[in-house]
Design a protein that fits this description.
The chain is of the alpha+beta class. The chain is built from 13 helices and 21 strands. Helix content is 37%, strand content 21%.
């Protein structure tokens, strides 16, 4: 969800309850577009993080500190000069804009009481932190915006500060039923779009939420709604605005399969099939959401080189496999040459010298066929020529059978590594995958490079019935789990016919309940190449029946007797244990 006006309202409400009247004891600028204020209030000490990052603007309270540069930037020094030891006397959000204004009372050089305003604008690429006088003159900003950069508003020292009105939107906190029907539902747009394009501070997600609560399809044209639907939609819109005015917020993160999908300051009923992680603090929700999403994106970035290596090797192997298959198809005519040779030896005595072809009865099919001949060769020599062609194609076929098996195994191995990269959640996971790529010659090991100690561990889950379940993150861990960690009576799960993790359920000699079988199968489906499919077929059997062929690549196993089930790759509700 976007950091919209309602989320900012939730933030402003929380800040008013926590840091209002707090004193600013320390000002730091750890990043070019980020401030970290240390505050002392009646409720204790706080850290307030403010960011004008174009892709990730935020304001929230945090417990975490960040290292600052040795030399403070000019904007930071300016703030220290004016508002160090100042007191926050007001925290405001104008309308439902994505803006928070901090009014700060401080003493000037002569000891007189003065007021300054620190404005944080959370507007995507237009985000900024602006420091103003009490009469709205800009002293400085963390980002300077000149006339060449924006024709709407300059943000430079000495200019007057104002909120740019770039769109004709209305304040939803003062909306009435008549205004809602007249201004929003009269637009030639879908119901959801009509709401968020008419009122400020409402994101598409919350507009859809209002429609969901009113049991109205948000994609339907607003003009197509009945009078009853319009009234119902208006009521739910006004009720949500009442909750905002009364500060009835329910900050939470929406989670699917352990991954954060969205966050919201109010209840989102449109995500019925996902988990909600509630917290009383919107600051905590924002910090956790951004931190968890950052981990995902950071690992994706760090694995780019490995993904490129795997993708290149996989593409090369697939091209090689296609070429070998074409060569194999070419060998299918070898039996024709053998038959030609046999028939020439059988009937060649009757062929006139210098003939270019002759007709003979194929005693394998009882059909008459025409056999091409080289007129410069005798029948015996023609027969020998065909037998040579047959033997050459036979040898090629035998060699290609081995090569095709080898190349297919290589493709499957690379696919399994690609799946491991999708599962990886930490740098340690990537180290183990890199080791495998080095071992199989896809990456050349640098001379003198020391092998890093690998700390990566398999995922550890607990079933609803109390059974411990383990999931390998890569091929090395799969081998370790299956052939060293698991006992013969433990149960083994794997996605059928596709790369994926080995899942081991420790039985400790007990019989598994049906629910544990299903939860283990869900894990095997989710941690496989088919995690985006509606359902995945899972093979499962006792570990003692799983074998590893000699010389097989890590993670490769064979088995002959197994059970199967088709299941949805959804691990919602399965408890992850952090070892």
């Amino acid at each position: 969800m976007a950091l919209d006006g309602i989320t900012v309202a939730s933030l402003a409400a929380e800040l008013n309850h926590t840091i209002l009247n707090a004193r600013i004891s320390k000002i730091a600028q750890p990043e070019a577009d980020e401030l970290l204020l240390t505050l002392k209030g009646n409720g204790g000490n706080y850290r307030l993080a403010l960011s004008a990052n174009a892709s990730l603007p935020f304001v929230y309270l945090t417990q975490n500190n960040k290292p600052s540069p040795m030399t403070a930037p000019n904007f930071c020094m300016l703030l220290r000069k004016h508002i160090a030891n100042g007191r926050i006397t007001a925290i405001r959000q104008p309308g439902l804009e994505r803006i928070i204004q901090f009014e700060i009372e401080h003493l000037d050089e002569l000891g007189d009481l003065r007021t300054k305003t620190l404005v944080v604008e959370l507007m995507g690429k237009h985000s900024n932190i602006i420091f103003c006088t009490e009469d709205s003159k800009i002293i400085d900003s963390i980002k300077h915006v000149s006339q060449q950069m924006s024709s709407i508003r300059e943000v430079l020292p000495g200019r007057e500060y104002f909120i740019p009105q770039t769109q004709e939107k209305y304040n939803p906190l003062t909306a009435s039923q008549e205004e809602f029907v007249e201004k929003a539902l009269s637009k030639p747009l879908s119901a959801a779009k009509a709401i968020y394009t008419t009122y400020t501070g409402i994101s598409p997600v919350l507009a859809n939420e209002i429609c969901t609560r009113a049991l109205v399809d948000g994609d339907l044209p607003a003009a197509a709604l009945s009078e009853g639907e319009k009234l119902h939609l208006c009521n739910h819109f006004l009720w949500m605005m009442e909750d905002v005015k009364n500060e009835n917020f329910k900050p939470h993160i929406i989670v699917k399969n352990g991954q954060p999908v969205d966050f919201a300051p109010v209840e989102l009923t449109q995500y019925q099939d996902m988990e909600n992680e509630y917290n009383s603090s919107i600051s905590f929700v924002l910090e956790q959401f951004y931190a968890r999403r950052n981990v995902f994106h950071r690992i994706r970035q760090k694995s780019v080189d490995l993904r490129k290596i795997v993708a290149t090797a996989s593409e090369r192997s697939r091209k090689k496999y296609d070429l070998q298959e074409k060569q194999m198809r070419d060998t299918e005519k070898r039996d024709k040459y053998r038959i030609y040779g046999e028939l020439i030896n059988t009937y060649g005595y009757s062929v006139p010298e210098g003939s270019k072809s002759f007709q003979a009865m194929n005693y394998y099919t009882n059909e008459e066929i025409t056999i091409p001949l080289d007129p410069l060769l005798s029948p015996t020599e023609n027969a020998k020529k065909y037998f040579n062609k047959y033997n050459k194609l036979k040898r090629t076929c035998e060699a290609l059978e081995s090569l095709l098996t080898e190349t297919k195994s290589e493709i499957e191995h690379l696919d399994s590594i690609a799946t491991s990269l999708n599962i990886a959640e930490s740098e340690e996971d990537l180290v183990q995958i890199k080791e495998e790529l080095i071992s199989y010659g896809y990456i050349r090991k640098k001379s003198g490079e020391k092998r890093r100690k690998i700390k990566s561990k398999p995922f550890h889950y607990l079933s609803s019935d109390g059974f411990h379940m383990y999931v390998g993150k890569n091929n090395y861990q799969n081998d370790e789990l299956t052939f060293k960690f698991a006992g013969g009576g433990d149960w083994w799960f794997h996605a059928k016919g596709m790369p994926g993790s080995h899942v081991i359920v420790k039985t400790n000699g007990n019989e598994l309940p049906d629910r544990t079988y299903e939860e283990a199968a869900r894990l095997a489906a989710f941690y496989s190449k088919g995690r985006e499919n509606e359902k995945v077929e899972i093979d499962y059997l006792e570990r003692k029946n799983v074998k590893k062929p000699n010389g097989a690549v890590p993670g490769y196993v064979i088995y002959y007797t197994n059970y199967s089930m088709a299941i949805k790759p959804d691990i919602t509700g399965i408890e992850l244990i952090c070892d």
